[in-house]
Specification:
One of its GO terms (molecular function) is nucleic acid binding. With 388 residues, the protein is of the alpha+beta class. The chain folds into 3 domains: 81 residues, RRM (RNA recognition motif) domain (Alpha-Beta Plaits, 2-Layer Sandwich); 102 residues, RRM (RNA recognition motif) domain (Alpha-Beta Plaits), CATH 3.30.70.330; 136 residues, no CATH class. Helix content is 41%, strand content 16%. The strands form 3 sheets. Strands 8-9-7-11-10 form a 5-stranded antiparallel beta sheet, with helices on one face. The chain has a 4-stranded antiparallel beta sheet with strand order 2-3-1-6, covered by helices on one side.
Length: 388
């Protein structure tokens, strides 16, 4: 019994070693003059465990090819480590095969042919690595799973990811259409780097915060009014003493005195050089200033709301019919529109799915204007379903 264990262990080890790897488990590096193959494996073993290295060899075009035990390890070397330090040089780690990136095109009207979109991409020096295909709407019920959505997909080279804009305008049959792009990995359309979205972009750290910018704008708008108010005070003239004619002509006119019981506020006590009160103009100015501050707070609240919505709609497990760009566009395009049937059909054929999306995102908004708009939209959409 004691002799059978080594043979069994040896057999399993041999079986495991005979497992054929896939090409996505391979990485390549450029060779360095006067550097042995062992030096590459030793440098690699400082980053991953030696047991994770499966195959290694020199290949054509002065490269070293290494197969590791799993695709995940290869991905980590390519995307996280990116370089190996060998003989005082940083050697780039690349995949053996080009890993194309899947791009989803949203808000694409079905009447637009694939070749029109492909031509538009080629104008931006983006070469497609696959044909453009439709994406299903996601209905699982029998008889409905054939229905397509207003989304399409295509694969492009990783190098072309940075060339992708957030959206493009495409003209077809005398009609302009907006098409939106999104990738499987988070892509920042500000710095064109993968791994974060615009609101988390490091380049935003060098920009003034939104609320500070708005506050300075409010102050700038207030200052001229204050200057105008001050100049108005200084330009007022002292009243002249009444002449005998004016006295005689108005001597029968009653003079209305202020009520002694009226409480004076701070604004009522602001007086000009000639003793006249500026309570009315001051109150108007302060009211305007307060309105501006309230508007600033509302704008900041709306910005924070959209940050939450972006996080929800960019998560990998969401099943909503629209991304955050389309959703914001949908709210804007339906604003003040009574018959929203045509607009809704451009975003999703499933009206009930839009209603569910609105009801689930509603609690994440604190801005009253947007919440009211969503409530009105839900009523209009429910009315559409009822009429159908």
């Amino acid at each position: 019994m004691t002799q059978s264990n080594p043979s069994t262990s040896s057999y399993s080890a041999v079986t495991q070693s005979d497992t054929f790897p896939k090409k996505d488990q391979a990485i390549v590096m450029d060779t360095i003059d006067n550097t042995q193959l062992k030096e590459y494996t030793e440098a690699l073993s400082k980053v991953i465990t030696p047991s994770s290295i499966r195959f290694v060899s020199r290949i054509a075009n002065n490269r070293i090819c290494v197969y590791v035990s799993t695709k995940e390890i290869a991905d980590e070397l390519i995307e996280k480590h990116k370089f190996l330090y060998i003989n005082k040089q940083n050697i780039a780690i690349r995949p053996l095969i080009t890993r194309n990136k899947r791009i989803v095109l949203s808000n694409v009207c079905p009447v637009i042919p694939h070749h029109v979109i492909q031509k538009k991409l080629e104008e931006m020096n983006i070469k497609t690595q696959s044909s453009i295909t439709f994406l299903r709407a996601g209905f699982t019920e029998p008889g409905f799973n054939h229905i397509m959505s207003f989304r399409r997909q295509v694969y492009i080279s990783p190098e072309d990811i940075v060339k992708l804009p957030e959206s493009i305008q495409l003209s077809y049959e005398d009609t302009n259409y907006w098409i939106y792009f999104s990738s499987e990995s988070m892509l920042c359309f500000m710095c064109k780097k993968v791994g974060h979205i615009v609101k988390n972009c490091p380049e935003n750290a060098n920009r003034p915060p939104i609320d500070e910018t708005r506050r300075s704008t409010t102050d700038t708008l207030t200052t001229p009014q204050m200057e105008l108010l001050t100049s108005s005070r200084s330009n007022l003239k002292h009243p002249r003493p009444p002449s005998s004619e004016s006295h005689s002509s108005h001597q029968d006119t009653p003079i209305i005195l202020p009520d002694r019981n009226t409480m004076l506020t701070d604004e009522d006590n602001i007086m000009s050089e000639d003793g006249s009160s500026f309570s009315d103009s001051s109150s108007i100015h302060l009211a305007k200033d307060v309105r501006k501050k309230i508007k600033t707070a509302t704008s900041t609240s709306e910005s924070e709301d959209w940050d939450k919505i972006i996080e929800i709609l960019t998560s990998s497990n969401n099943c909503y019919p629209m991304n955050h760009i389309e959703f914001k566009s949908f709210l804007e395009n339906t604003r003040g529109v009574q018959d929203i049937r045509v607009i809704c059909s451009q975003y999703s054929k499933d009206t009930s799915c839009i209603i569910q999306m609105l009801s689930e995102l509603y609690p994440h908004f604190s801005n009253r204007s947007i919440k009211s708009r969503i409530t009105r939209l839900q009523k209009k959409l429910k009315l559409l379903i009822k009429n159908d």
